[in-house]
Amino acid sequence: MSKVYTSASDEEIIKRIQNKGLGLRTSTSTPKWPILRLALTRSLKFSTLPDEGLDRRDSIGSEYSFEQLTGQDNKAQPEDFTDLFRALLSVYYNENLFGDDERYAKYLQRHIRRGLREFATSWRESHDFHEYLYQELLSDLHQSAQSNTEKPRDQPSIENALHDIGVQAEIRQIQEGARLTRYRLYLANVNDRDRLNKGLQKLGFILGLGNQGALSSGTDESKTMNLDIPRSSGAWQRFSGAELHVWLQNRNSEWRLPVYPGVDVMGDPFGFDLAEAPHLLVGGTTGSGKSVTLHALLISLLHSCSPTDLQVCLIDPKRVEFNSYQGIPYLYANQVVTNAGDAVEILGDLVAEMGIREEQLVKAGARDIDEARRSHRLNLPRIVIFVEEMADLVMQNEEIESLLVRLAQKARSAGIHLVLATQRPDAETFSGLLRSNIPSRIALTVQKASESRIILDDNGAELLLGRGDMLVRLIGQPIKRVHGVHVTIDDIALAVKTIKGRA
What we know:
The protein is of the alpha/beta class and 503 residues long. The protein has three domains: 119 residues, Arc Repressor Mutant, CATH 1.10.1220; 84 residues, Threonyl-tRNA Synthetase, Chain A, domain 2 (2-Layer Sandwich), CATH 3.30.980.40; 246 residues, 3-Layer(aba) Sandwich (Rossmann fold). It contains 18 helices and 16 strands. The longest helix has 25 residues. The protein is globular, with a radius of gyration of 25 Å.
C-alpha cells in the first residue's frame, strides 16, 4: 500500500509543534495526525502547486499509512476522512483520485510536507500557535463573511466620525486601494492635522474598525491630509511571488540593488535602491510578515544581480529562515551563519573587509565603490548583510552590536550594506547609536506605539493591518504605506532552483 513520507527535518517541525505549539506530550504515543492534517490544510490555501522535489525520500525519514492520516487507526475514537481528503485533492488538481492510491499518496505527501515547511517558516515559538492557526487558516473566512454584509462607508459617515473627534474636514476625493479606501481630506484648520493624528484610535472605535486601525498621512498641501480606512481582508487585492518576478523584469535599470517589498496603497509596485538606503531596519511582531518581507528583499537582489556584482551574508540564529539558500553562489563565506559565535567571527571579517576596501579605494583615487566601478579601477561586489532576529544575537553577545555599529557608520562607501530584522524593537536591543546609523526603516505591525517610534521615529505601526502591511521610511523621504508581496516557500524554492541553474 502507498504511504506518505516525511523527512527527518519534517519530523523536527512536527515535534516542535507538538511540544511548543500544541503543548502535547512528546512520548511516542502522542498522535501526529492532527499536525499532518493542519499542514495539509495550510498547503491547500496556496494557489500554486507544491514542488515535485517533495517526492524525494531518504533513509532517516518516517512513513504514515492512510489509516494514520485519516484517524482510522485511532481505536478509542476511529474516524474516516479518506473520501474528504481525496475529494479536496481531486478538486485541487482537477483529477479523479478515488481510484489511484499511488497518485493520491504522492499529492498528499507534497501538500503535507509543504504545509510543515510553511509552519517552520512563518510560525515562531514566541507566538501562540492557536492564534497563528486562526490567522493563517480561518481569518480570511471570518473576514470574508463579514465583507459580504459590510456596508460601504459613505462620505457623510466619515465626516461625522471626524467631527466626533473634533476635526472639521471635507472629503475632496475617494480612492479604492489594494486593501483600503483612501479619503483625501480638506481641513478647516491647520490645527486639525494634530487633532486627527491624536484621535486615530478613537476614530477607529467610532467607525467599528476593531483591531484594524485608521491611518493618516500628509500631502503637499498644508490643509490637506489622506485618511486610510481598511476594508475587510476578504476584499483585499493580494500579490504573489509571480508578480514580484514581473516587477523585477521591469525594474529601474539605474538601481544598483533593486528591492521590491510590495505595492503602494493603490496597488502599484513599490521598490527602491537598497544602495541608496544604505542600511535598513525591518521590525515587526510575530505574524506581521517580517520574515516574508526579508525573503522578498533577498529574492529581489538575487534575481537582479549576478554573483560577481553581489554577495549576501545571511545570519539566522533561529536556523529556519535562510536554510533554503544554502549552496547558492552568492553566499559570503559559503555559509549561512546560525549561531552568535560564528556571527561575531563573520562580522569581524566584514569589518576587516571594509578596512581593506577603504585602502583599495584610496589607492584607486575613488571616493566610493560606485566611482571605482564606473572608472573600472576596481570591480568589487557589493555585500548585503541580512541579520534575522538581531535582538537575539545582541542579547547573546554584546560584541555583535559594536560590530554592526562600525559597519553602519562606515561601510556604505565600501559597498557593504545592512538589513537588520527584529521582532522586539526596544532601546535595549536597538540602541540609539545603532539606530542613528540605520537611516531607512520598514515597520510592520507592532504591539505598542513606543515600538513604532523605535523603528520609525513616529507612531502608526501599532495601527497596521498585519499580514505584510507596513510603513516604509527611506532616507530623505516621507513615510509611505506599503502592502507586502506574499512570498511562499514555493517561491523561495523556485528562486533558489533558478539561481543554482544559472551558476
